[in-house]
Amino acid sequence: MNSKIGAWLRLFRVVNLPTVPGDILAGAAVVSFGTPAPLAFKGILAAAATAVLLYMYGLADNDIVGAATDNDRPIPEGLISLGAARAARSICLYGAIVLAYLAGLPAFWWPFALATVICILIYNRTKSPLLMGLCRGLNLLCGYAASYNELPANIRVAVVAALVWTAYIAAVTKYSEGEEADPAHKRRVGLLIGALVWLQLAVVAAFSFLFRDIALLAVQLAMIALLFILKRLMPKVSAS
Question: To 10 degrees, what angle do helices 155-175 and 183-211 make?
Fold first, then answer.
């Protein structure tokens, strides 16, 4: 693999990207219980794509902030310049904004997306496990907000689900501290992070079986398949 291409794949943790749409799909599925309105499938797909761009924005920002200390990342290794990384960060952010606008995502999606960006920026500068959890929890709420053309009444269900997401990721992030010094610890952390994918699948599958709508499940299964393919094709591209 070309070293420059490999550097960008590492910067954006490409192996991990298929896990991001699962939060959106779970957010769409979990709030459907007790809500008779049909899902806005186009909005869900647009929110999923936007979530990936915001995730990539956060990864670029993370490596820019840590360029002076994270010696094993592409920027300090000299494979990607700070200028190129800043340009990529901007492209991801503005790309997400343009995509959301063109897709016509509902007005109540934007506050959740803005809160996600704020949490990303603060996390990258503080490394707070709670903020990492909030990034994922808010991602789920973005899926909830994009699922309907009108705001559903059962926002409490979405908030509870987001809190579960937040608590789980925050706990795993806290547990992961010091993983680089212990290979066994790092493997356990990898298993805990990987479990989020199966949690996403369980929520989406429950929705699909209850409502006999397999569209969300098909997308989630495609993301899981892509995740395993990327892990097989690019085992040396770090997902952390």
Answer: 160
Neighbours of 80 (CB within 10 A): 22
pLDDT at 239: 47
Residues 6+ apart with CB under 8 A from 210: 33
Cα distances from 76 to residues 39, 58, 65, 120, 178, in angstroms, run 45, 18, 11, 21, 21
Query: 123 near 135, Cβ under 8 Å?
Result: yes
Quick one: 92 exposed, middle or buried, by C-beta within 10 A (0-12, 13-18, 19+)? buried
pTM above 0.70, yes or no: yes
Q: What is the DSSP string of 83-118?
A: HHHHHHHHHHHHHHHHHHHHHT--TTHHHHHHHHHH
For 50, residues 6+ apart whose C-beta sits below 8 A from its C-beta are 96, 99, 100, 103, 105, 113, 142
Spell 112-151 as b/e; 16+ CB within 10 A means b.
bbebbbebbbebbeeeebbbbbbbbbbbbbbbbbbbbeee
Q: What does the radius of gyration of the chain's CA atoms come to, in whole angstroms?
A: 18
Q: CA-CA distance, 183 to 5, in Å (whole number)?
A: 27
Per-residue pLDDT tens for 166-221?
999 999 999 988 777 778 878 888 888 889 999 999 999 988 888 777 889 999 99
Percent of the chain topping pLDDT 70: 93
